[in-house]
Fold each of these.
Amino acid sequence: MHIVPEQPLQRLYPTNLDQVVESVNRAINPPLGGQPQARAIGSHWGISHTGVTTGYMIETATPVHEADGDQTAKRLNEPRYDVIPDCLTPEALRFFYAQNVPAFNPAVMPTHQEIYLFHVEAGMRIHELYALLDEGDAGKGKRSLADLMKEQGAGNDYSGPWALETMGGAGGQTIAGAFSTGTHGGDVPFGPLGDAVLAVHLVDADGEQHWIERTRLRPMTLPWETTMIDENKLKARFGATHDHREIQYHQDDNLMNAVAVACGRMGVIYSVVLRVVRQFALKETISSPQQWSDVKTWLTSPTAPIFNAIPANRFVKVDVSPYGGFWDPSRHDCYIVTRVLRELDAAGKGLPLGRAERGWNPGKGAPLGKAYGFFSRACSSDNWIREALDVSLVQIQEIRVKAIKAWLVAAAVIWFPLSTPAMKLDALATQQAAVATIVWAALYIAAIAHLIKHVISPIKIGFGDTLAAIANFCAHPEHFPIVWLPDLFPVFRAVYAYAFDAEHDVDPGNPRSPAISYAVMDEHDYLNVSCVAPGDSIEIFFDATDPKLVDFIDLVLIRVRQLENGELSGGPEAFGGYISLRFMAQSEAHIAMQKWPRTCSIEIAGLSRVEGTEPFLKRIEADAVDFRAVLHWGQRNNWSMKDVEGVYVPAGPWGALFKWRAALSELTDHGRYDVFSTDFSKQMGLEITDPIVGSFSVAPTEGCANEQTTIAWEAIRNPPETQAFLVIKPEKGNPTRLPLGTLSGNRSVTLVAGRSTFSLLLERELNGNIYHDQRDIAVRGFANNDEWTFTFTAEPRLVDGISRWVVEINLFSQFISNTLRVTEIHCTFAGVASWILRNPDVADLQFTTAQNHHMLSSLPVFNKRWLFFSQSPASPGPNPILQVVFKLVCQH
Ligand SMILES: Cc1cc2nc3c(=O)[nH]c(=O)nc-3n(C[C@H](O)[C@H](O)[C@H](O)COP(=O)(O)OP(=O)(O)OC[C@H]3O[C@@H](n4cnc5c(N)ncnc54)[C@H](O)[C@@H]3O)c2cc1C
């Protein structure tokens, strides 16, 4: 569990769907003084602030924060049988009916062609999940898909164990917490865990429920002709909620690929449907030590044998030592760990090499016997470090003995009467070197003795803290009470190298594999508390074929030296951690870190109590940003929005972040419902950026100058921080900007004289950037005797029973004010001798070339019908053009 200073206002522990909805609603409408903010949370393993909220924390797993919390109380970790199989469509049922699934035979090499669906609540921990899958899903008294197939007499057999396709290096995360940050393993053909999620049941920021599912079972298979889940059955199953809202059904890959990695921003995932495969075993091989200088020559090659082996390496990991040994700091050992698929029986069929030793006790014990995982062997006791120090001590003592012997031999040469002067000179030089070595060795021996007696012995906690103490002591030997201080980093390097080699040591008498899938994949030792020490970790992702990957690791190794030299912080510091590379396939999720067909993750983790860890990881994070590499959402991640947008394209229509934000828009009413918006999501730009004007109107748009007009606006479907302004821009002169205060409403505004533009301007500030949308409307405030000119081509039409040329100006517009009155009309025309004007408020008027204008003393309302027709019948020839100028005055 990662603990941060920011604590939530309240932790809520829903145990079923209704309580999840209730929890979200409580966060949306908190009691007085509460902050309307929430985050779903799983195991709290995330290191970044992805799961941090100061509002309501919706806990889906055990109440790890409550000292007296009942760790066995009900939580969201049940398998579900109410949607699968009951709500499957006939097409989906036919698929599972027709799928070729022979009875599980552990002696047969799995093909992983068969698929099974497993539906679980989101707070289930991964080790619970793989344990359940391993038990099989038939005959548990719950009518599972496996049971249904059996009932229907299908020619297949879904009983027997199932397994996760891939998983990370530990099983303590919850399933939803893990995939929400892109958690992955090192399985070359698979993306992160989220790619195997076929559907989610999510409660959004308005408390509304959504069922979101993919269009296909596997990326390469044909999409369903219909759907996997029957919408009507689903709706019947979940009914209308208390506020009469039905669950929303979406078969939408875009939405699914957004929710699959969303850092909790889209809502609370209540449950998850997973694609699972037949149980299998893995055989692991650890290479003999290699040198980074060699490994880097082939690592990024697409033809590297490690990625092209037969049988294929399902898993590939390269561990790189950040340190050389005692003598050579630039010699970096590497171990290459590979795993191949095996039939389950390869994991052992009975004692003594049976499943009990091979992890058949998932999540409850040591993963495999006693030793595995980075430093897990070392974790078993701090004695182990003494052992490493003792080895160094013995080596140095041997060096001292050799030096003493060399001094004595040289002394003999000097005193021997027959020695020539040249021989004596050589012997003197040897003696000098030997003395230097003896003093050096004595200092180291004293330092190591001091280290053992005064630094290690008082520490009772175990390996992590002991290693941290050694690292800190070696970086700051000023605490060592002698005058001349040796460089003690070699001692730390020696301890580290010992641990690094030991971790990759394979015990031929008790090999850790072949073993059942999860026992190999889950490297976490749940029982070994001696290893528990606060850590910090960053994971950086590159295209595995990009030479920049090697450049970056070279830089990391340089940074280790710089840290030791005091170049990265105030003084010399050590880095107590590891560098581990894993390889995986591209993800379908929009903002997953796995962006390339072969993606490499570089995990660099260190003990927090080693004083060099923080400055080191900080520097590495900055380097990763400079390389425009990708950071793990759930590990150390202090990206800015600019960094995120540099990695995930925000521009539409194809940009990854654009698509992710489009999904967020769909689920949050374009950001209007923002209860899952946190400091982290804002910092990262996992937010709606561009506001959208819903509607904007001005009525009237044409009226008298200084008359009141009404503007009405609606922009409620936007993030609540959005600000609305009315900008009035006269044709001549400076614009004015009026804050509107709310995102919808109406208001009286004075029309300014002349033409101007009224604009509804929306502004949304995020991380110093202003995003806007604007809708413009042209308006005009008439002064007395301002003119309004119309030009029309006349059409023939019957008027008073005769076909004449007609121009009809039929106003009656809500946008024209009735305060505008007509004082004079002026007509310009050709091809027609005279025009008659007909208007309900004035008697017919005639316009000829001689009398082409009339004053209207009755000042009729302009916003009416003005009918002009030729006095004579329409004659053959071109349609005449009529220009009418209304001179207007204002009469309120
Ligand atoms: C010992 C250790 C080993 C690790 N090994 C690996 C590894 O091998 N590979 C790897 O890629 N990463 C690894 N990580 C990183 C880890 O997998 C991620 O941080 C993961 O997200 C943690 O899962 P969690 O259940 O603890 O989630 P939390 O830390 O509790 O939450 C993580 C995110 O998920 C969201 N979330 C949680 N539950 C829900 C829900 N129900 N609905 C919606 N959102 C939700 C949260 O809001 C948060 O944003 C490791 C971390 C540790 C500490």
Amino acid sequence: MNLIRKYPGLLLALAGAAVAMIFGVAASRLSFGPPLVVLGLGGMTLALGGLALYRVLDPFLGDPSEQPVGPQAPIRRRELERDKQAVLKGIREIELDYQMRKIAEADYRDLLQRYRARAMRIIRELDAGDDYRSLIEDELKARLAMAAGACPSCGSTNDTDARFCKKCGGKLEAAR
Ligand SMILES: [Zn+2]
């Protein structure tokens, strides 16, 4: 396959001509002369036509693992970025709803758990090794830690409605 990819036209044209001429000699008992040359040219044309068709179809026939990742990666990254924003927005909204007593604590915890599961899926997907990865991961982890009531300075867990850290006294509200 490498050889064909390197010299596709030449190799295939010669092969087509050879096949046609062998057919001419074997089946029609043609001796070397104009008819055989014409037959060879016909085979060459057929082979080049086949090559043109192959080139058109090539992108659809390729091994999926050989597909270029370059042009597709940024699209996937944008999708993940959108998902991440949606998750962060959702977390902010339920935090606000909970603080305004619009939702019960049980619902708040349940929703938070779901958002956290979704965030973990996004992080796993980003684990492919982009430069973006650690950035998004840190942001998400920080946000999730805060949503869970963890102190941004010392990381100790506080009640979700606490304004100051019970361990270091750091302000919890400011970072939200
Ligand atoms: Zn603290």
